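@channel sequence for tomorrow's demo:
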Amino acid sequence: MRFLKLIANAIWAAVYGSLLITCLILFLNDDLTQAGWVSLGALFVSVAAAYVPIIAVLLPLALLFIRIFAVKHLTPTWASLKTILWFGVATLAVMTVVFYVNLRASPSLLSPESRGTLRGVSAAMAAVCLAGLATASLGQFRSGPRAHRLRLLAGCLLVVPLILAPLALPRSRARPAGAGAEARGRPSLAERGDRFVSSRPHLSLLLVGVDAASMDFILPLVSARELPALERLMSEGASARLDAIRPCVSSVAWTTLLTGMPPWHSGVRGDRVYSVGFSSSRIGALPRMLGMHALMRFGFGRAAPSRASERLRPTIGEILRGSGIVVEEIGWEPTHAETSSSEAAVQVSVEAARRIGEILGSLPATNSVASWGPAYRRLRRTLVNAITQDLDARDAAQAVQRAESGAAARVRAIRLPGLAEVSRHFLRYHEPENFGDVTSAERELFGPVLSRYYKFIDEVVGELVAAAGPRGYILVVSSHGVEPVPEWRRLVRPLVKYARSSRADDPGPSGSWSRGPDGILMIRGPGVVAGARLDSADIMDVVPTALYLLGLPVGRDMGGRLQKRLLHPAFLESHPVLFIPGY
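structure tokens (generated this afternoon):
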């Protein structure tokens, strides 16, 4: 009975926490604030349905745990202002930490205005929490009317965040009319007449996206003269590290690179969108530290891959088509979601089988395939799928080029996705010193795989560059690099495997880009400074720079800027930068 009474008092704090959780969701997804009161009410009811039972049970359990060694016996009532107040203060303290963590962990998901207001709300919540705690503590040392008044004052203080947070919610931006036009049935840029004639119609552009390529791997191999194609691009053109978004989701990073807009502006905040409970609102970013992803697995909501219609801004391909430029895009379809085809069965061509043999090498004499078991087969399958995807993209590009007659495409964009999965699964063998549990046999067999795959990518890029010809521009980009999985995830992974009854012989991915390791930018063509090196450039600078090189105006609303440091001053003088308000 005592525990039930505590639950009855904790329900009020649970509703209080659910309101703050709803406000945090709206901060991270400011486009939801344009929804009506019915949709927002449904969102709150859905959040409350999930979190009220959890908070209402956890708070009494925590209180009983704290009072194990208390001298005075706990005798709660069904509705105790004192108990409700302490539960409310504890809930506000936890939510203040959650707000701060999401503020620090999601810089790319929040607009500058949202970051400022969320920072102010978090500071106000911390101040109210301290004031409420002090006032409630003073009430402990009073009795009678004085104690009751102090507790009422503390309760009024706790209401302040519920008033401040909704008032501080950012206003959503108007949805532009040109983005994702084909997906939403609206006129495209070209159909609306937003056409801009290029001042350099004779130039072409080859854009090669190499997923998860990193300068940390490329530079040592270039120094060893093992990547001739990339080495030539770097010597004849310019190169830079690209600052990725943080936190980094591959599909979001590529959307940011291709639109020149940050996630809060492009509208793509994740590789999935979520529908929570009874609400029909589509949520792009879930708050951290609240276990929402875990609740999704228990039926709290539904997740679906992010679609092109979620995007609010046009990609560079849509911009160029709207300006009358012929564009061929190959291999970009999977960018709408994080994908891993390591479990899929693929048809291996003769060339793919040869490449697999070159990259994987022969099995050491002291080990057999049977002794490696499923772990070897999974890694080999990952490599097979990666090579097949990259060769398919190359072959498709070559087939399109052969089929072109007369008016060839001025812009050809090819994405090579295979390196991402190879880096994720083979990084621990390439950098065994960062993991500590790699055996000498594993190092001997899998250690050279990642370097050999970079050589394979170099050959593919070399073939694409040679087919493009000497004229025009070459851009080789990656929206992010790869780095070892954070240590805390390595510590938690065995527990997760045990809970999910996963195979113990599967080490899981060892590479990650969640913390936004740098991507790459290599550019060659007229006006580019040969051999220029930049320590850093922004991922959003690629689109403005590409538009300028093709003789098109740069949108003033774009998050990036033209990288003038890569271009000759004389070229900039003879080709002035043109601007428009936006595409």
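heads up for whoever presents: Residues 176-193, 334-344, 365-369 have pLDDT under 50 and may be disordered.
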